[in-house]
Amino acid sequence: MDIVLLVKAAVMGVVEGLTEFLPISSTGHLILAGALLGFDDEKAKVFDIAIQTGAILAVIIVYWKKLRDTALALPTSRQAQRFTVNVLIAFVPAVILGLLFGKAIKAHLFTPVVVASTFIIGGFIILWAERRPQSQARIQNIDSMTPLDALKVGLVQCLAMIPGTSRSGATIIGGMLLGLSRRAATDFSFFLAIPTLIGAGAYSLYKERALLSMADLPLFGVGLFFSFASAWICVRWLLGYISTHNFVPFAWYRIAFGLVVLGTAWSGLVTWAP
């Protein structure tokens, strides 16, 4: 396989891993990177979704102790059962709404104005959320969440179907506005990402299987590896960052990136299409 193509796959993997779990929209960054690299055909779009699995593997490793302890305690522990049910409850809305409206959203909302607007609006929502004192959060850890809390976060996650919103941004900032502490919202966002992104990746690969062949394995393998490695670094860094910092810098970054989207679309440098 062409070494240049493998290098492009590695770069896209790094972009995915570094942006998937930050509130800045991995999709927007992958589109921009793909356009700049000339890696934006139909197969590349399947690649972008599939390599999310590498990022999820990083989350599983970072949270392995919690996942293992929950699995072992599931038959007897009400806390483990409630945590598992909460993740499943939060996962369901995205499945239902994704199947119902996914095609329509790709067909009608993936425009420069929509992407830029959601970047910028999301930035201002983060600024608003961070003005609320953390002492007012009623949920300090994810084990205190109720099924209704989980459902609300799951519904907020559905906003990420709008291009440029950011799945992690929607769940983390939405969770904070719903009463979760910054750490609880971030933790739950990571756990919710596991079924959400694995499901999205598997569905995309199945739906577009006609585009793929065994010759693509090296390409996808490189992307998955670099997505995993960069996501592992990013997740560990983010968990340390939020213990002493807020998300305000990401808000200003989103606003600036929204202006970049408008500028690149106006100049013709990037085609912001699904």
Number of domains: 1
Low-confidence stretches: none
Mean pLDDT: 90
Q: What is the helix tally?
A: 12
Count of individual beta strands: 0
Structural class: mainly alpha
CA radius of gyration is 18 Å
Question: Assembly state here?
Answer: single chain
Structure notes:
The chain is an all-alpha fold. The chain has one domain. The protein is built from twelve helices and no strands. Helix 6 packs across helix 10, helix 7 packs antiparallel against helix 12 and helix 8 crosses helix 9. The longest helix has about 30 residues.
SSE order and pairing:
Elements: H1 3-19, H2 26-37, H3 42-50, H4 52-62, H5 64-73, H6 78-108, H7 112-129, H8 147-157, H9 167-177, H10 182-207, H11 217-241, H12 248-267
Features:
mainly alpha
Quickly describe the structure.
This protein has one domain. It has twelve helices and no strands. It has helices at residues 3-19, 26-37, 42-50, 52-62, 64-73, 78-108, 112-129, 147-157, 167-177, 182-207, 217-241, 248-267.
